[in-house]
Amino acid sequence: DQQVKQNSPSLSVQEGRISILNCDYTNSMFDYFLWYKKYPAEGPTFLISISSIKDKNEDGRFTVFLNKSAKHLSLHIVPSQPGDSAVYFCAASERGGGADGLTFGKGTHLIIQP
Amino acid sequence: DAGITQSPRHKVTETGTPVTLRCHQTENHRYMYWYRQDPGHGLRLIHYSYGVKDTDKGEVSDGYSVSRSKTEDFLLTLESATSSQTSVYFCAIRTTDRAGSPLHFGNGTRLTVT
Fold first, then answer.
1. Which residue of B has its CA nearest to A39?
2. How far is it, in rounded angstroms, from Cα B41 to Cα B86?
3. Number of neighbouring beta carbons within 10 Å of residue B77
4. CA distance A15 to chain B (A)
5. Is residue A105 predicted with pLDDT exceeding 80?
6. Which tens digits make up the pLDDT trace of B38-91?
C-alpha cells in the first residue's frame, strides 16, 4: 500500500503564476517531509523540508504547507519560472535522521508554459 | 555537489548475467542508500548501509545484494539479472545525523536487461 501519494501525474502552469503541488500520506508515524526536484538524466535534488511540528516552511520562491490532521502537504512555487519545469517528488520519513530512508511518492511532472 | 559518483552511467546486459553497480563518495559519510526509479512507482529503497559491513534491506530488496567493505564505496549486485530489474538506479548519502536531514543523490545508472 502506497504510504505517500501524489495523485496528479502532471501539472501545467503559466510562467509567472503560482504552481501548487500536492501530496497525501497515510503513515501517522511520518515526522519529516521533503520535496525533491528532478531533471531528466540527473538525480533528484533536495528542495525544501518541513517537520511535523510546523505547518509552514518557506525558502525563497518555495513554500511547503503541512496539514497534519488531513495528512496532506503542498508545495507552492511563486512565481513559476521555466527552469521549474521538472518532476517533483514528495518524500517522508519517520525519524528523519540516521539510517532512516525516505519513502517517496510517484512524482508530479510540472510543466511551466511560457 | 554531494560528491557522489555512480558507475557505470549506462549498462545493457542479458537476462541471467550478474551485474554490479558502484557508488563512490568522496567524503566519509556513514549512511548510504540504493534506490530504483520506475515509471508509475517513484523511487523505492532497495538496500541501505549504516557503516562498513553494516547493511539492511529496504522495500524492494529481492534479487539484490549489497556490500560495503570501505566507507566510500557501496556496491549493488544483481546476482542474475531479470527484465524486471530494468530501471534507473540511484545511490544516495546522508551527510548529517540531524533529524530531518535530506538524502543527496547521485546522477543514476540506467540499466537495461534484455
1. B107
2. 13
3. 15
4. 26
5. yes
6. 988 899 999 999 999 999 999 999 999 999 999 999 999 999 999 999 999 999
